[in-house]
Design a protein that fits this description.
One of its GO terms (molecular function) is ATP binding. By secondary structure, this protein is of the alpha/beta class. It has a domain of 221 residues: Rossmann fold. 33% of the residues lie in helices and 19% in strands. Helix 6 links the parallel strand 7 and strand 8.
């Protein structure tokens, strides 16, 4: 079962450049969360800070009672055993075949025998649909297969937290759809806590239990998927619905003149909220809620057509 990550007042700068400040959120145990934001808002920095690769300027990150922002190196080493990470490019060793790439963490961090390692590696290859490719080099397979191999390696130590740094980067829409289904199926099987950094709006609208949005050096919003997909908050509405009207401009924020010019334009209606992607075996994940449950609890009427099977992605504006 996954573990909870509690982030309080987290702030990170590089020199005089503030990346984001006073970020507070709780990533629930065993749930799938997505972190969004325009390019350059520090999403990958946030991921690296969560695992202790970067130290925040202030704030805390509490995992199983340990603040990894201020703990000792020994404590951090132990906490990192809870994590598996899928990097953007898979981060495979080019001179090793897939089998040895996936076996690497087991050989480095455990005292398991080669027969035990083989059983685990083959299990993860099967889990990610890569049986039969174990002798191939990373350069001999497609980008989508490299992503899956990287995911198999991230899972090999049975982590309770899995971080995905733009897993859809470089993939076409079809491969992204297959990867999204794999992520949902894995969460159902291993019940770990998943955090996905992505730019893909379809992924954000259909995969997670919770969504966060980093914007203009702060966390604009974090909460249940239905909360953000029904939000009238301008930056949330604009980003999650791929609209041109709103505070986000081509470079960063729109200036006052641009916003004033938009003031008399009618906002397009919110698109329907799609059904959340379900495990391929049809059995709901532990954290999966009934479609529309959050909206009903909050007394919010979702956009017309919400929670229909044929709704998947917000239209561009």
């Amino acid at each position: 079962m996954g573990v909870e990550i509690e982030v309080n007042d987290l702030t990170k700068s590089f020199g005089k450049q503030l990346i984001w400040g006073d970020v507070s959120l709780t990533i629930p145990a065993g749930e799938i969360c997505v972190m969004l934001g325009p390019s350059g808002t520090g999403k990958s920095v946030f991921l690296k800070t969560l695992i202790g690769l970067l130290k925040p300027d202030r704030g805390s990150i509490i995992i199983e009672g340990t603040d990894i922002a201020s703990c000792s190196e020994r404590e951090l080493y132990e906490i990192r055993k809870l994590f598996g990470v899928l990097f953007q490019d898979g981060a495979m060793f080019g001179s090793m075949n897939l089998y040895d790439n996936i076996a690497f963490p087991l050989r480095e961090h455990t005292k398991k025998s080669e027969s035990e390692i083989r059983a685990i590696v083959m299990e993860k290859l099967d889990l990610t649909g890569l049986i039969g490719t174990e002798q191939k080099l990373p350069g001999e397979i497609s980008g989508g297969m490299r992503k899956r191999a990287g995911l198999a390696r991230a899972l090999v130590l049975d982590p309770e937290i899995v971080l995905f740094d733009e897993p859809d980067s470089g993939l076409d829409p079809v491969r992204t759809s297959f990867l999204n289904q794999l992520i949902v199926d894995l969460n159902a099987q291993i019940d770990a806590t998943f955090l996905i950094v992505t730019h893909d709006i379809n992924t954000a609208r259909t995969v997670p239990d919770n969504i966060g949005l980093l914007y203009h050096k702060h966390l604009a919003m974090f909460g249940p998927r239905e909360m953000l997909l029904s939000s009238e908050e301008p930056v949330v509405r604009q980003f999650l619905n791929a609209q041109k009207i709103g505070p986000i401009g081509m470079s960063e924020e729109k200036d006052a003149d641009e916003l004033a010019a938009e003031s008399d334009q009618e906002l397009p209606p919110l698109p329907p909220i799609p059904m959340q992607l379900e495990p391929s075996n049809g059995i709901a994940r532990r954290s999966q809620r009934e479609p529309g449950a959050w909206c009903r609890e909050q007394g919010i009427t979702p956009p017309p057509g919400s929670f229909e099977d044929n709704v998947s992605m917000a239209p561009g504006a």
